[in-house]
Specification:
46% strand, 2 domains, Diaminopimelate Epimerase, Chain A, domain 1, alpha+beta, 17 strands, 274 residues, single chain, 4 helices
C-alpha cells in the first residue's frame, strides 16, 4: 500500500507521495497506475517528496504518463500547501522546495484550515528566458510563437479568437503536433494566449506528458512572459485558465517572475500497487 495526499491548484491535480513510501519501487510505473483516471486515483502527476530541513524539501515530478518533468508550478504549490498543513504554517512563512529546475521559495499569503485545507502562495519561478520562434508543421503550416523556458520548455502562441483556433484548426490539434515536434527533442508544453486587455489574458494549455489541462503554473508563467515582453501587457497580469485565475508579477528581463495562486488538499488515502 502506498500512502498519498491528493491536492489541486486551479484543477491541476497531483498526488503527493513521500520518497520513503515509494522506496524501491518503479516511480514511473507507480505514477501511471495511480494517475489513471478510471482505474487509479486520478491525477496529472505525482510529486515524490523528501524533507531536507525543518521548512524545506525536495521534489521529483513524474507526469501522468510516467515521464519525468523538471518542474510544475502548480505541483510545487500543491506541495507547499501540504507542507504548510504538516507544519502549521501561518501567513508570512516561507517554504523552500528544491526541484529539478532549481530552488523555489514559496511564500504563504493566506491559510484556510476550515474544511478543505487551502492556501494562497506566491512562488518565485526563476528568471524566464524567451525568444520568438516559428515552427513548421506537416503540410507547410507555419506557426509563429514564442519559445519560453521557466525551468521547463514552453511554446506560446497568441490567438485572436475566443475558440483559441490557429489557422482554422482546434488548439488541441495544434498542441498535439507541436508538443512532439522534432524542433523540441525533449518535447514541449504548448500554451495558447488570448489577450483580453493589458492586465488580463486567457489561456489554454496542452501539457507535455498529460495533454489538455485545466491549469498550469509554469504555463501561466510562460504565457505571461510572452504577453508582458512582446504583447504590451502590464504587470501584475491576471492569467485566466479553465480551472481558475493566477497572477503573475514580473519586472522584465533579468528579474525573477512571481506566481500567485491557490492550492487545496482534497484527500488522503492508501493505494494498492502492483
Amino acid at each position: 500500500m502506498i500512502p498519498f495526499t491528493k491536492a489541486h491548484a486551479c484543477g491541476n491535480d497531483f498526488l503527493i507521495v513521500t520518497e520513503d513510501a515509494a522506496h524501491g519501487l518503479d516511480w514511473a510505473a507507480v505514477t501511471r497506475q495511480l494517475c489513471a483516471r478510471n482505474t487509479g486515483i486520478g491525477a496529472d502527476g505525482i510529486e515524490f517528496f523528501a524533507w531536507t530541513g525543518p521548512r524545506s524539501g525536495r521534489l521529483r515530478l513524474h507526469n501522468a504518463d510516467g515521464s519525468i518533468a523538471e518542474i510544475s508550478g502548480n505541483g510545487t504549490r500543491c506541495v507547499a500547501a501540504w507542507m504548510a498543513e504538516v507544519l502549521g504554517s501561518q501567513p508570512g512563512d516561507a517554504l523552500e522546495i528544491a526541484t529539478d529546475a532549481g530552488l523555489r521559495v514559496c511564500h504563504v499569503n493566506a491559510v484556510n484550515a476550515t474544511g478543505e485545507f487551502t492556501v494562497e502562495v506566491t512562488t518565485g519561478m526563476g528568471i524566464p528566458a524567451y525568444a520568438p520562434r516559428t515552427v513548421a508543421l506537416s503540410g507547410g503550416l507555419q506557426i509563429v510563437g514564442v519559445e519560453v523556458s521557466t525551468g521547463n520548455p514552453h511554446f506560446v502562441i497568441v490567438v485572436d479568437n475566443a475558440e483559441f483556433t490557429v489557422a482554422g484548426q482546434w488548439w488541441q490539434m495544434i498542441g498535439t503536433q507541436i508538443c512532439v515536434h522534432s524542433d523540441f527533442p525533449h518535447q514541449t508544453n504548448v500554451e495558447f494566449v488570448r489577450i483580453i486587455h493589458p492586465g488580463e489574458i486567457e489561456i489554454r494549455i496542452f501539457e507535455r506528458g498529460v495533454g489538455p489541462t485545466t491549469s498550469s503554473g509554469t504555463g501561466s508563467s510562460a504565457s505571461a512572459t510572452a504577453a508582458l515582453a512582446l504583447q504590451g501587457c502590464v504587470s501584475p497580469l491576471r492569467v485566466l485558465a479553465p480551472g481558475g485565475a493566477q497572477t503573475v508579477s514580473w519586472d522584465g528581463p533579468g528579474t525573477e517572475l512571481q506566481l500567485t495562486g491557490p492550492a487545496a488538499l482534497v484527500a488522503r488515502g492508501e493505494a494498492w500497487y502492483g
